Amino acid sequence: QTVVTQEPSVSVTPGVTVTLTCGLTSGSVSTTNHPSWFQQTPGQAPRTLIYSTNSRSSGVPDRFSGSILGNKAALTITGAQTDDESDYYCVLYLGRGVWVFGGGTKLTVL
Amino acid sequence: EVQLVESGGGLVQRGGSLRLSCEASGFTFSNYWMHWVRQAPGKGLVWVSRMSGDGSSATYADSVKGRFTISRDNAKNTLYLQMNSLRAEDTAVYYCVRDPALAAIWGQGTLVAVS
User: Fold this and answer.
1) Strands B92-98 and B34-39, bridge-based pairing
2) In chain B, which residues have pLDDT < 70?
3) Which residues of B touch chain A, with CB atoms under 8 Å apart?
4) C-alpha angle with apex B47: A19 to A77, nearest 5 degrees?
């Protein structure tokens, strides 16, 4: 069974650029997986940041960007801010109508 | 304003049933695939099911296949999730989500607790 992988935790200093990744235990991520990225703070519903690899959702600051890096999808935060400290999830379409979320990355900004 | 509002969650005994609803507004509901996603307490997001805009196609995660049924009423702009044979591991906040491939919109979620 294919699993979607994310870094469990990442720490970054304010102002520094950080990249979170989203991969597959079997195979490479491509645009056909429609990678999307979500931000979630405790007690809140997730918020969509990026959809279909690199499209930014309405109202999302342009310091958030999505791409394919090598064999993974990537979410880059250019100049991380303390407000960016959250959980980040990716989701991939695996075909045959099935979507799978990654386990999430806890981003610490300090 | 584009909005999704879930309802129908609550406390249910193991083996019981519950039907969740998600009322959509602010967009043409029938044009979009709609999904259910759940999150157990302190855990990550898990995809549950999706249905096509016209209701002709549905897919399920293996963990709920045969127990949960997704459906929709486009005249009422409402998505449903019928949950039968509920287990303790189904305890979670259930979110209604508009197509992740097209700038997903999320509802606020409804809590299902199975005792």
Assistant:
1) antiparallel
2) none
3) 35, 37, 44-47, 50, 57-59, 61, 95, 100-109
4) 15
Over residues A60-92, the pLDDT tens digits come to: 999 999 999 999 999 999 999 999 999 999 999
Predicted confidence band of residue A2 (pLDDT cuts 50, 70, 90): confident
Q: Which chain A residue is nearest to residue B107, measuring alpha carbons?
A: A45
Instruction: Write out the H or E segment, with its range, that includes residue A58.
Output: none
The two three-digit tokens of residue B78, written as one number = 């409402």
For A72, phi then psi, to 5°, come to -130, 160
Residues A55, B103: C-beta atoms closer than 8 Å: yes
Tell me whether residues B109 and A55 touch, CB distance under 8 A. no
Distances (CA, A) of A11 to A20, A77, B36, B49, B71: 11, 12, 31, 33, 42
Cα B109 to Cα B92: distance, rounded to the nearest angstrom: 9
Residue B31 has what pLDDT?
96
Cβ contacts of B102 within 8 Å, gap of 6 or more: A51, A52, B32
What pLDDT is attached to residue B102?
83
Strand pairing of B110-114 and B10-12?
parallel
Task: Give B-chain residues touching A88 at CB under 8 angstroms.
Answer: none
